[in-house]
Design goal:
The complex is a heterodimer. Chain A is mainly α. Chain A is 41% helix and 0% strand. Chain A folds into two domains: 50 residues, no CATH class; 115 residues, Cytochrome c-like domain (Cytochrome Bc1 Complex, Chain D, domain 2). In chain A, helix 5 packs across helix 9 and helix 8 crosses helix 9. The model of chain A has no long low-confidence stretch (mean pLDDT 85). By secondary structure, chain B is mainly alpha-helical. Chain B folds into three domains: 32 residues; 133 residues, no CATH class; 34 residues, no CATH class. In chain B, helix 5 crosses helix 6. The radius of gyration of chain B is 25 Å and the shape is extended. Classes of the chains: A mainly alpha, B mainly alpha. Chains A and B meet through helix 5 of A and helix 1, helix 2 and helix 5 of B.
Chain lengths: 235, 215
């Protein structure tokens, strides 16, 4: 073998190795990576509009007065020197979705129907009936069962004993949820269960933001169904 | 008179004839493989500010997806839950866990937890979860086995051709409407005919025209 062929051979294999190494470094399809996906046309993919739950530097949130004060001071200083205000700090997470101004009510959200929204009758006591808007039928029970199994079952378990999977793991609950099948809760009116879902009770937080009002009534009916299932068909 | 080109240049046409197709094929193959969202997007797995495990919550504990992502049936966007949803249980369980410190901090201060978004469609693509759920497309079809992921990653490329694959032939990805969030429901082993399901109200004709998604 002459010297030139040896060099050529070496060069060739180096080139081949480089191609293979490049391929290996680039990885395969579906490889895990914490590098965000490539956006070739960034301003097309992220247009100048705000979607649900996006961040918006225009707004401060009410809970970050320090950041707001610092930015106001920086803007004032810039104005004194006749300059544009610098960009606002981004340490404070402004939300594109805004909360309504305190004390205002959006149209159609007055919620002045006490029976439907608070579970209370005309005498301001917890009602034992469904609101007129909601009809008791098989579909309501099915809906109630489905929603109960999504939102309540993790703590209260499928049959309402208060021994859901969340209460059994990681050291358990400090305060165990009560069983529905005790005399105190059997005696409660239907509106009580609606009220507890809506406002929370004891260590249970409010589920009003998670569950729409009609579904809360359906769940209340399902809780009653679970109770009745153990008292042989009636209170 | 000496030759203008040395003798070795006679090999150049042969070398071009051999190497150019190889180079061209490599270029096309490389673009096909590496420029595809299957490479650039699938597998994206950001490290979140709190090490929330879907495997624990949705898998081992069997919580329904909608306990946290409760807007998915009512809105286009399947919301990331507010901190209060975490506190529904974690005001009781693991209340001293250092891993949950950012959650407790957020609950007290009211500031959002800066979760990093995993699935992000471009803004020019219209997407709404509601019709997909109403049609019986399960969560798992697009998001993969979330219930087996300790750290959530993109399972599918979410590319246009991937969307169209299903819009042109949706039936293999349809399931009974009460099995939407059941990650273990496998269409390959279940005998389910969407055309014969009386609970199904929507026609099996997802849009394939441009303005179906680019509005």
């Amino acid at each position: 073998m002459t010297r030139t062929t040896a060099t050529r051979c070496l060069k060739g294999s180096l080139l081949g190795a480089a191609v293979i190494a490049g391929g290996l470094l680039a990885g395969c399809q579906g490889n895990r990576s914490d590098e965000p996906p490539v956006h070739l046309l960034h301003n097309m993919d992220f247009q100048a509009r705000f979607d649900a739950q996006e961040k918006n530097d225009f707004f401060y949130d009410v809970d970050c007065p320090e950041e707001a004060a610092a930015d106001d001071a920086a803007a004032e200083e810039a104005a004194e020197h006749g300059e544009h205000a610098p960009h606002r700090t981004k340490t404070c997470y402004g939300r594109a979705m805004r909360e309504p101004v305190a004390g205002t009510v959006a149209r159609g959200h007055l919620k002045d129907d006490d029976h439907l929204y608070r579970g209370r009758g005309a005498d301001d006591r917890l009602a034992d009936t469904l609101p007129v808007q909601i009809e008791l039928n098989a579909a309501l029970l099915a809906r109630g069962e489905e929603r109960y199994n999504i939102y309540c079952q993790p703590c209260h378990d499928y049959s309402g004993n208060g021994e859901g999977v969340a209460t059994q793991r990681g050291g358990g609950f400090k305060v165990q949820p009560p069983s529905y099948h005790i005399d105190r809760l059997r005696a409660m009116p239907l509106g009580y269960f609606f009220k507890v879902i809506t406002d929370g009770q004891g260590t249970m937080l409010s589920y009003a933001s998670q569950i729409p009002v009609e579904d809360r009534w359906a769940i209340a009916v399902w809780v009653r169904t679970l109770q009745v299932s153990r008292t042989k068909g009636g209170k | 008179m000496p030759a203008i080109f040395p003798r070795w240049t006679n090999n150049i046409p042969l070398a071009i004839a051999i190497l150019a197709p190889i180079f061209g094929a490599g270029l096309v193959g490389g673009v096909w493989y590496y420029f595809s969202p299957k490479f650039t997007d699938a597998g994206y797995r950001p490290i979140q500010p709190v090490a929330f495990s879907h495997k624990l919550h949705a898998g081992d504990m069997g919580m329904d997806c909608r306990y946290c992502h409760n807007t998915v049936e009512r809105a286009a966007h399947a919301a990331i839950p507010p901190t209060q949803t975490c506190m529904n249980c974690h005001s009781q369980v693991k209340t001293d866990s250092p891993k949950l410190a950012p959650i407790r901090e957020s609950y007290e201060s009211g500031k959002s937890v800066p979760w990093i978004r995993v699935h992000q469609l471009p803004d020019y693509a219209f997407f709404d979860h509601r019709p997909h759920l109403a049609a019986g497309v399960g969560c798992v079809s697009c998001h993969g086995r979330i219930d087996q992921m300790t750290v959530v990653q993109m399972d599918q490329p979410l590319s246009m051709s991937w969307c169209l694959d299903c819009h042109r032939n949706p039936e293999p990805n349809l399931r009974p409407l009460d099995q939407i969030t059941n990650m273990g429901w496998d269409p390959a082993t279940e005998d389910y005919d969407p055309k014969a399901d009386p609970a199904r109200k929507r026609a099996l004709t997802p849009p394939e025209h441009c303005s179906g998604c680019h509005r």
